[in-house]
């Protein structure tokens, strides 16, 4: 008896992702001098290579660090356990950094999951809206006494990454035009703020107090609470200088008392 | 829309097309690459002022027995409203099962059950978009033993039931006919010409399967002679339609695509002149 379409599609997917391909009544593929298994392999090959390419497009730095062939192996193990939830491939692969954490490769490249987090954050920033941002003009319209209680949010696509490794230098060393200088992996870690720029995505290195300020704003603190957190992280923290720098990056939105968010 | 030749707009050429605005009959984009805000979407919106557009979806999964992903459909509908394209299309295939996306145009058995499923999904898409959807014939590498309809019979009945258009890909007809040992001319005979809204042209690769050649629709080379010849027969049978040059792997410089489009335009012009003489 012919399988119902829903059952056939389940069997087809299972065959594509399984280690071997078997044809049975659940999957009645016709074969001739080209066997049914060889015909199914065309689809298996396409699913794995196209999703591997999609991951390589997002995890550009990871691929540069481990090489194309090794990356394909990583991608294939990831893909068979984590298929996309939708057809927008720019949204595929959020779980890849966590997958790398559990992979033996971290024994040799312990910074790889953090590099993957940076790649993912850059991808998310690139696919985020620009829109209006909080500016000095907006701030000038707020009475000075009200400033400490202002709630300021981070624009969509803005991510703070705190790493125990010199992630900025690792990233720079993988760029096509980078000078061939060794990176001291044992150097101090960094805090990177990844964000959408007008025509692309990029990141800057934040000092400890700036990172604490941004992290506090991200968790819906008021400006005053964020400043307290920043000073706790760095006793020499200067709110005016730090806030001015973060404001200048174009990553802040103003959240008014009624909850609406404006630039 | 006049029977002009267009090209698939790929990321590699986007900046150059924005800068130089070459003469192209129309541009086609893959819907799934433009559903998120990005600098690329801003460029496409800018180009929309100067070029007619086609939106070609690859992920609606019209053949999924579990129905459509409504969230995805809504995002496609939003893009269609923004860009107001001349044509919206997707494939006679499936790619989603159990809510997971396989990123391939997977084959359907051509049965009454599958016809009901695809017709229901096409109706839903056309209702969400408020306009006609065109369905492209896929490249096939396998057939199911329990199919009861031929592919063109299936497409013809789908068009009759739903009012959808048919996007006739000459390369896919050639690839399918070779891989499934069919006669491409006989394949064309069953198709209702009035439903055809657009033609596609692309290159294919030849791989080995069990020691025999199998053709792969990889869109990675110029249109082959056999496909140009089939395209000529399609024009003779169905008349000219807007025609797209697709290139998706090993993408060459923009001039190569423009030259292919110019060749398609020349063939279309001959078809139009032949039609005018016949009238």
UniProtKB/TrEMBL annotation, chain A:
Protein name as annotated: Putative DNA-binding domain-containing protein
Entry superkingdom: Bacteria
Record Pfam families: DUF2063
Keywords for this protein: DNA-binding
Putative DNA-binding domain boundaries: 8-100
GO molecular function terms listed in the Swiss-Prot or TrEMBL record: DNA binding
Entry keyword Ribosomal protein: no
InterPro entries: DUF2063, DUF2063_N_sf
Keyword DNA-binding: yes
TrEMBL record, chain B:
Organism superkingdom: Bacteria
Pfam families xrefs: MbnB_TglH_ChrH
Gene3D superfamilies: Divalent-metal-dependent TIM barrel enzymes
Designated name of the protein: Uncharacterized protein
């Amino acid at each position: 008896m012919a399988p119902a379409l829903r059952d056939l599609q389940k069997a087809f997917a299972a065959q594509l992702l399984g280690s071997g391909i078997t044809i049975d009544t659940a999957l009645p593929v016709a074969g001739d001098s080209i066997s049914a298994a060889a015909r199914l392999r065309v689809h298996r090959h396409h699913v794995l290579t196209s999703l591997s390419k999609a991951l390589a497009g997002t995890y550009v730095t990871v691929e540069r660090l481990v090489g194309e062939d090794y990356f394909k192996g990583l991608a294939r193990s990831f893909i068979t356990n984590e298929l996309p939830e939708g057809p927008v491939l720019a949204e595929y692969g959020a779980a890849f950094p966590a997958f790398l954490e559990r992979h033996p490769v971290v024994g040799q490249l312990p910074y790889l999951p953090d590099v993957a987090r940076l790649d993912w954050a850059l991808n998310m920033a690139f696919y985020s809206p620009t829109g209006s941002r909080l500016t000095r003009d907006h701030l000038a319209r707020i009475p000075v006494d009200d400033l400490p209680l202002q709630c300021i949010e981070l624009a969509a696509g803005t991510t703070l990454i705190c790493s125990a490794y010199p992630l900025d230098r690792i990233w720079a060393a993988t760029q096509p035009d980078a000078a061939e200088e060794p990176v001291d992996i044992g150097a101090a870690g960094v805090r990177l703020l990844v964000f959408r720029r007008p025509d692309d995505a990029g990141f800057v290195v934040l000092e400890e107090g700036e990172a604490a300020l941004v992290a506090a704003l991200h968790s819906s603190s008021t400006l005053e609470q964020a400043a307290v957190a920043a000073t706790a992280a760095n006793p020499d923290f200067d709110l005016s200088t730090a806030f001015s720098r973060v404001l200048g990056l174009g990553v802040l939105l103003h959240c008014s008392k009624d909850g609406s968010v404006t630039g | 829309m006049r029977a002009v030749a267009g090209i698939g707009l790929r990321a590699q050429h986007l900046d150059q097309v924005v800068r130089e605005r070459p003469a192209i009959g129309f541009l086609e984009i893959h819907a799934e690459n433009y559903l998120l805000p990005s600098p690329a979407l801003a460029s496409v919106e800018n180009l929309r002022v100067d070029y007619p557009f086609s939106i070609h979806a690859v992920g609606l999964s019209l053949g999924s027995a579990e129905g459509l992903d409504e969230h995805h459909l809504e995002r496609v509908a939003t893009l269609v409203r923004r860009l107001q394209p001349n044509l919206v299309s997707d494939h006679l295939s499936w790619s989603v099962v159990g809510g997971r996306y396989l990123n391939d145009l997977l084959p359907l058995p051509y049965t009454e059950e599958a016809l009901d499923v695809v017709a229901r999904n096409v109706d839903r898409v056309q209702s969400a978009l408020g306009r006609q959807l065109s369905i492209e014939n896929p490249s096939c590498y396998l057939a199911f033993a329990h199919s009861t309809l031929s592919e063109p019979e299936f497409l013809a009945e789908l068009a009759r039931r739903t009012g959808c258009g048919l996007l006739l890909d000459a390369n896919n007809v050639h690839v399918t006919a070779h891989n499934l040992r069919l006669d491409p001319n006989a394949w064309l005979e069953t198709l209702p010409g009035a439903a055809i809204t657009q033609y596609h042209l692309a290159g294919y690769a030849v791989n080995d399967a069990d020691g025999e050649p199998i053709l792969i629709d990889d869109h990675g080379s110029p249109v082959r002679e056999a496909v140009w010849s089939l395209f000529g027969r399609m024009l003779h049978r169905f008349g000219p339609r807007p025609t797209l040059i697709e290139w998706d792997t090993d993408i060459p410089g923009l001039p190569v695509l423009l030259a292919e489009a110019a060749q398609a335009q020349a063939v279309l012009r001959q078809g139009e002149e032949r039609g005018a003489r016949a009238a």
